[in-house]
Specification:
- The protein has 19 helices and ten strands.
- A hairpin with a 3-residue loop joins strand 9 (380-381) and strand 10 (385-386).
- By secondary structure, the chain is an alpha/beta fold.
- The longest helix has 16 residues, at 273-288.
- The model has no long low-confidence stretch (mean pLDDT 89).
- Helix 9 (154-166) crosses helix 10 (181-191), helix 10 (181-191) runs parallel beside helix 12 (220-227) and helix 11 (195-208) packs across helix 12.
- It has four domains: 21-148, 3-Layer(aba) Sandwich (Rossmann fold), CATH 3.40.50; 154-227, Helicase, Ruva Protein, domain 3 (Orthogonal Bundle), CATH 1.10.8.60; 239-326, Zinc Finger, Delta Prime, domain 3, CATH 1.20.272; 333-425, post-AAA+ oligomerization domain-like (Orthogonal Bundle).
- Keywords: ATP-binding, Nucleotide-binding.
- This is Replication-associated recombination protein A.
- Belongs to the AAA ATPase family. RarA/MGS1/WRNIP1 subfamily.
């Protein structure tokens, strides 16, 4: 027990010791009141590592006084589940904490589900993946609560660190440690809202610092050196990674350069350049579009260069592409127009192609009536090029408009041409 990590030893023993997540498990929350009154529902806890999923589960067990069993879905077998079921039969209701529940297989579910359904087992599942994408519906339907946990604030982490420094039973209190508020803030900021990382960093800094007059004085140099090693959570292919991609696109769409660069930095720390480049290319055409058509070519060149260069140099062309897209005029008119046309087809708004547009490059086309097409290039119109007033849509769709110009950037000029050509048809 002496060798247990500080993060493990400081795990809350009851709900009143939980730090952060006030809206979910604070004293004014519905869940807290239910548990204190003896009602513990099955639930799913969803969020990034280190935000308190395991801690909340053990705290619920401590406050409810129910027997507590913890399993990891990547390692648990049918026999482990059967043992929990047997204990539930012998001792009554128990809590089963199942970490990485999104990896639960069907055989395990079949063994466990009836007992969750009849209430003899309270299931608390934890996952870093979006449960609506990754957790079997049979499990979700039996969990009354699906709770999304968020990263702890710097203030929350500082509170946790202060508790670890002063707790003489489980923390560093009996060892004699001196730390400034500024140092705790640095540790909290480096942990990025991850309680486990913050306590692990604190413990490492403690052992890397020198003792003065019987007191270990935390070293600024040790904090700075060790903080660089704790890493950034960016699980490739996981929910958090896709959330980062989504945040990057929405920040570019919203023209927030600083936010976009922050999310780009976070994504590049995960090392998946290909996924980032693909998303940036999509953004160039989805959100910039006709307002600045040159951006598509610029982003394509930047993403090509990034993939050839690799990290860390890849960040240079990607940063330029992101800033350019943030500050560019924006339009989504082109793809919206195409989506409108697709929707019309799905709604059955179709018709036969006009005969004069059908292929006529074969003997017998005239006999089928595939005649009458007029070649626009033969009829110049100002500086626009060739244009002639003839029908292109099927008879049933004549007059339908899918494209609605956005009056922004280069599309202003395109919009005026579009409206002028419409007037010629009248």
């Amino acid at each position: 027990m002496h060798n247990e990590p500080l993060a493990y030893k400081m795990r809350p023993r009851n709900l009143d010791e939980v730090v952060g997540q006030e809206d979910i498990i604070g004293k004014d929350s519905a869940l807290y009141k239910m548990i204190i009154k003896g009602h513990v529902p099955s639930m799913l806890l969803y969020g990034p590592p280190g935000v308190g999923k395991t801690s909340i589960a053990s705290a619920i067990a401590g406050s409810s006084k129910l027997p507590f069993f913890a399993l990891n879905a990547t390692q648990a077998g049918k026999s482990d589940i059967e043992q929990v079921v047997m204990d539930a039969r012998m001792s009554g209701k128990v809590i089963l904490f199942l970490d990485e529940i999104h990896r639960f297989n069907k055989l395990q579910q079949d063994t466990l589900l009836p007992h969750v359904e009849n209430g003899s087992i309270v299931l608390i599942g934890a996952t870093t993946e979006n449960p609506f994408h990754s957790v079997n519906p049979a499990i979700r339907s039996r969990c009354g609560e699906i709770l999304q946990l968020t990263r702890l604030t710097v203030e929350d982490v500082c509170t946790l660190l202060q508790q670890a420094l002063t707790d003489k039973e489980r923390g560093l209190g009996k060892l004699g440690v001196s730390a400034t508020n500024e140092q705790l803030i640095k540790i909290a900021e480096a942990s990025n809202g991850d309680a486990r990382k913050s306590l692990t960093l604190l413990e490492s800094v403690y052992y890397a610092s020198d003792e003065q007059d019987g007191v270990t004085v935390l070293s600024d140099r040790a904090i700075e050196h060790l903080a660089k090693r704790i890493g950034v959570y960016g699980d490739k292919g996981g929910s958090h990674f896709y959330n980062l991609l989504s945040a990057l696109q929405k920040s570019i769409r919203g023209s927030d350069t600083n936010a976009a660069l922050y999310y780009l930095a976070h994504l590049l720390e995960s090392g998946d350049i290909v996924a980032v480049c693909r998303r940036l290319l999509v953004i160039a055409y989805e959100d910039i579009g006709l307002a600045n058509p040159a951006v598509g070519a610029h982003v394509n060149a930047a993403t090509d260069a990034a993939q050839k260069l690799g990290l860390p140099e890849a960040r240079i062309p990607l940063a330029a592409a992101v800033v350019e897209m943030c500050l560019s005029d924006k339009s989504n008119s082109a793809y919206k127009a195409l989506d409108a046309a697709i929707a019309a087809i799905h709604e059955g708004k179709t018709g036969d192609i006009p005969n004069h547009l059908k292929d006529a490059h074969y003997a017998g086309a005239k006999e089928l009536g595939h005649v009458g097409y007029q070649y626009p290039h033969d009829t110049p119109i100002g500086t626009f090029g060739g244009w002639i007033n003839q029908q292109y849509l099927p008879d049933a769709l004549v007059g339908m408009e899918f494209y609605k110009p956005v009056i922004a950037g280069e599309e202003k000029r395109m919009a005026s041409i579009y409206e002028k050509l419409k007037s010629f048809k009248m």
